[in-house]
Amino acid sequence: MKKIQMVDLRSQYLNMKEEIDKAIHEVIDTCAFINGPAVAAFQKDLEKYLGVKHVIPCANGTDALQVSMMALGLQPGDEVITTSFTFIATAEVIALLRLTPVLVDVDPDTFNIDPKAIERAVTSKTKAIVPVHLFGQCAHMEEIMEIAVKHNLAIIEDNCQAIGADYIFKDGSRKKAGTIGRIGCTSFFPSKNLGCYGDGGAIFTDDDELAKQLRVVVNHGMAVRYYHDYIGVNSRLDSIQAAILKVKLQYLDRYAAKRRAAADFYDLAFTGNPKLKTPVRYSNSNHVFHQYTLVTKQIDRAALIAHLNSKDIPAMIYYPVPLHLQKAYLDPRYKPGDFPVTESLSNSVVSLPMHTELDEEQLKHITTSLLEFVNA
């Protein structure tokens, strides 16, 4: 059996090696390494795929979030509501810009931000909401949009884990994750569903004026070379990464189908086990399974992970410490127990290998080994 990886990037590369190598060499031949034709070509393809007017490539997903808040003109002290159950970058950029992160609890089924908690957290200082489409499933965007309209708030979608997912509205219409709010952000970190071979990110919007501002901010605050009208940053997607992403974008929907097939295998093995809660797939989002995350019940999680590791099966905990309990973000507004769902998840979730190259032999080994421990 082939060695099991959390994400098997090498096998994925070998399956498209000829295309990837050709794309990389074309960039090297042109020597247009920054803002070259490859970047423009990928940008155009991604705009078409997402059905969005503007894609602004940038250096990484964290920059995408920061640039979005800068372009919106948020000021120190403005409040931004987000979830406590997410990767640190979501709150990190809020703090770096001296904005005020307002953390709220999540839905126990989807792990995504709870719209009712958002509504309770809105104050006169609230300016934006950052819903995170965690693990590959969209947040409850229709409810969140209603709250944003009611209180005149901007929505910045953190779409770093759900690119390619569809959100299905109550009327049956669909939009791609990241294109529903005013701005969407994504990361092209190698392990993402659409990942490059280094760092990369992008910002999406249908707002023409905001797109102009975003392009200025990512380019040192200048629209005309050497004329700096705004404070900006240096955040660019290099041409080699763009060329790689252009190739991989063609396969994104196929990747999602393979991830769902692996998730189906896991579900079939684990559904109905009283000690395991499988991921809930809501009808308003077609899950693209960036992670396959179980909630364990009455299980020694550390011992489970050790057991899996002994069988050469990796497993991860996303995320072991909620944002409101992270040392760097301790705040007198929050204390242990304030977000019971988030804290319960942090103490009970475990993520299994999930990627496009999982085969049936590997999946059988993973599920059999896990159930061996759970049912002992």
Describe it.
The protein is α/β, with parallel strands linked by helices and 376 residues long. It has two domains: 9-249, Aspartate Aminotransferase, domain 2, CATH 3.40.640.10; 252-374, Aspartate Aminotransferase, domain 1 (Alpha-Beta Complex), CATH 3.90.1150. It is built from 13 helices and 14 strands. It has helices spanning 9-14, 17-30, 37-50, 61-71, 89-96, 115-121, 141-151, 208-218, 239-249, 252-270, 301-310, 340-346, 360-374, and strands spanning 54-58, 79-83, 100-104, 126-130, 154-158, 166-168, 174-176, 183-187, 201-205, 222-224, 227-228, 276-277, 292-296, 349-352. A hairpin with a 2-residue loop joins strand 10 (222-224) and strand 11 (227-228). Helix 2 (17-30) packs antiparallel against helix 9. The longest helix has 19 residues, at 252-270. It is globular, with a radius of gyration of 21 Å.
Task: Give short descriptive properties of this protein.
globular, Aspartate Aminotransferase, domain 2, seven-stranded mixed β-sheet, alpha/beta, 38% helix, 376 residues, three-stranded antiparallel β-sheet, 13 helices, 14 strands, single chain, 2 domains, Aspartate Aminotransferase, domain 1
Give a topology summary:
Layout: H1 9-14, H2 17-30, H3 37-50, E1 54-58, H4 61-71, E2 79-83, H5 89-96, E3 100-104, H6 115-121, E4 126-130, H7 141-151, E5 154-158, E6 166-168, E7 174-176, E8 183-187, E9 201-205, H8 208-218, E10 222-224, E11 227-228, H9 239-249, H10 252-270, E12 276-277, E13 292-296, H11 301-310, H12 340-346, E14 349-352, H13 360-374
Parallel strand pairs: 2-3, 2-4, 4-5, 5-8
Antiparallel strand pairs: 1-9, 6-7, 8-9, 10-11, 12-13, 13-14
Helix pairs in contact: 2-9, 3-9, 4-5, 4-8, 10-13
